[in-house]
Amino acid sequence: MSFTNEQLERYSRHIILKEIGVKGQKKLAAAKVFIIGAGGLGAPAAMYLAAAGVGKIGIADADTVDLSNLQRQIIHTTDDLGKPKVESAKETMQRINPDVDVEIFDDFVYSGNILPLIADYDFILDGTDNFATKFLINDACVMANKPFSHAGIIRFRGQLMTVIPHQTACYRCAFKEPPPKGAIPTCKEAGVIGAMAGVIGSLQALEAVKFITGAGELLTDKLLTFDAISMKFHTVNLPKRDGKCAVCGDQPTITELFDYDQPTCDLKTGK
């Protein structure tokens, strides 16, 4: 493929980077990224991936825009109140970059639909806010051999890791099972500083760009944490892939997807 003069100008700050260049930008244009959740994490990630020129971006969420979302979900505006989040997200992404093909799914992701949703995509972003869906995304991506970025935020803290199935530690290698119901507060109960979503969601977009272009090192076998109170990042080295892991191990015991019953975050719908 060749870029138009307008596209060369649009992506010029990428193209002059030796780690990206025209070759890397073409890889971005040919890539497909799927974002699960159009909320705090998905919002900045979607905007930066659209701006970066990722050729196709899928985004799934069944919520509508609520006033309480606007403190952190910057892809939506006051004028979008009551609108499906995926529609609002698509409108913003295509205003940023009309070159990008945005495919939306106005549906919650669960065990019965996640595999066909992610099947056509190269990299998956977990922008969800509950352990049930995070473990589901991990298990589905491992089964479908889809690289993905996990992230989570609460209060003034965030964390991030990237998984290359069957090569690196997966989320379940590190955390095994969801915590008992009620053991960890939701962001409705604990709160979350809005800009934390921007920090961690942007890092997820960066991991996707690095995976696609091959630039730099990915956060594989590592957990990056950020404490906004002390303004400190910390990288924790995780154990290598666990051969006894229930989903990615040598003899997996989880071979079918299922849904955990866990509380979530939204003030009205629980998401």
Output the number of helix runs: 10
Largest sheet: 8 strands, mixed
Can you count the beta strands?
A: 8
Poorly predicted spans = 264-271
The radius of gyration over CA amounts to 18 Å
Q: Mean of residue pLDDT?
A: 94
Structural class: alpha/beta
What is the H-and-E element order? Answer: HHHEHEHEHEHEEHHHEE
Give the strand order, joined by hyphens, for the main sheet: 3-2-1-4-5-6-7-8
Shape: globular
Distance between the termini: 41 Å
Strand content: 15-25%
> Which percent range fits the helix content?
25-40%
3D structure, described in words:
- The chain has helices at residues 5-10, 12-15, 21-30, 42-52, 85-96, 114-118, 131-144, 171-175, 187-190, 194-213, and strands at residues 32-36, 56-60, 101-105, 123-126, 148-154, 157-163, 222-227, 232-237.
- Residues 264-271 have low confidence and may be disordered.
- β7 (222-227) and β8 (232-237) form a beta hairpin.
- It has 271 residues and is of the alpha/beta class.
- It contains ten helices and eight strands.
List strands and helices in order, with pairings.
Blueprint: H1 5-10, H2 12-15, H3 21-30, E1 32-36, H4 42-52, E2 56-60, H5 85-96, E3 101-105, H6 114-118, E4 123-126, H7 131-144, E5 148-154, E6 157-163, H8 171-175, H9 187-190, H10 194-213, E7 222-227, E8 232-237
Parallel strand pairs: 1-2, 1-4, 2-3, 4-5
Antiparallel strand pairs: 5-6, 6-7, 7-8
